[in-house]
Design a protein that fits this description.
By secondary structure, the chain is α/β, with parallel strands linked by helices. The chain is built from 15 helices and 10 strands. The chain is globular and about 70 Å long.
Amino acid sequence: MPEEYSKEQIAELEKSRAISDAELLREGAEYLIDDQGNKTLIVPKHSIRTARVKRNREVKSPEKMISKEAEKGQWKDWTVAVMSASSNTNYAAMENTYGIGKLVAELGFDAINGGYSVGGMKRYADGFREKCREMGISDEEITDHLKGVIYSEQAIGQHLKKQRGVNEQATIYEADNLGERAGGIVYRADAIVAVEGGVGTELETLLASQGEWFVETYNDGITKEIKKLEEAGQLTEAKRKEILGQKRNIRPIISIDSTDMFVDMCRIAEERSPGTVNTLAEYTYIFESHSRTDRQDPKQPMATVDNDKKMQEQLAMILEMHYLMDLKEKASAEQTARLEELRHLLRDQDSDWRVRTLRDVIAEDKEKYNFSQGGGI
């Protein structure tokens, strides 16, 4: 049963929501009411630039991450983005995004994607919204936690904008170009899940992974600084904490692709330019394609996040692990123990694991295909 809110809690939530909406309305946002009376908050494109500057790397301070709602076990103030195609023809992609949406809502995370009511974007929003309603969450509250970034009419024209439509019960942001839109999704997220799609989806995944590699490089520099001070006998505990506080959160990039397009692109890049994979984030995970042996329906031959418990459990574990990592010193003793447990499980995978890191996949390919000697795939 969903938790019952007191009158005081409801009043506080309504006040917070009203303040948030008022800030966006002052910047030019407008309410859009559809034929069924559903309300969507349309946010102007300049808000993306403001939000990006405010966020830079981390939109949330650790203090904000332990919110009153998080303490109640509902929302954790942590966002999962899904990159997916606008096509409706790929069964696995549609069911993966739908299953991810349900899982994200169940875990208490916010959702963000490309905002349109087509393809994987629609299915992610559908899964998130349906699970929220199942848990007794109101449509108005769903709007606060489901977001999308679409192209402005100036970018794609009125016809295409109307043809695609936008997801209902969502806060919508607008962008004028591909870079601004992709950045508007990525920089509002704490984790990125990429589901099989076209060239645009794969390029966004590569760019996101390389972007996180730069953060990893930055953090490596901080680790080296600590080691240097330690060797010189100049490192106090206060100084250690101060320097460690400069480390940035790293977004995991999780590819769920039954066609292996993303991995194939990385394989080709590594073959042509050895070392390429080392400029992609260490926390880039691959759910490798596989068939279900216990399903006879020929229309559903592929395991997805919606129909495969193992995929659900393992995706949930990766997301939970990175959420706990982002808590840093704000994590409780119980959360710290859980983080170590998850790290151990990821290190010592058994045969039931569907997921590996991209670097492990490519390292195995190097031996298999002899990349270093110029061998072909």
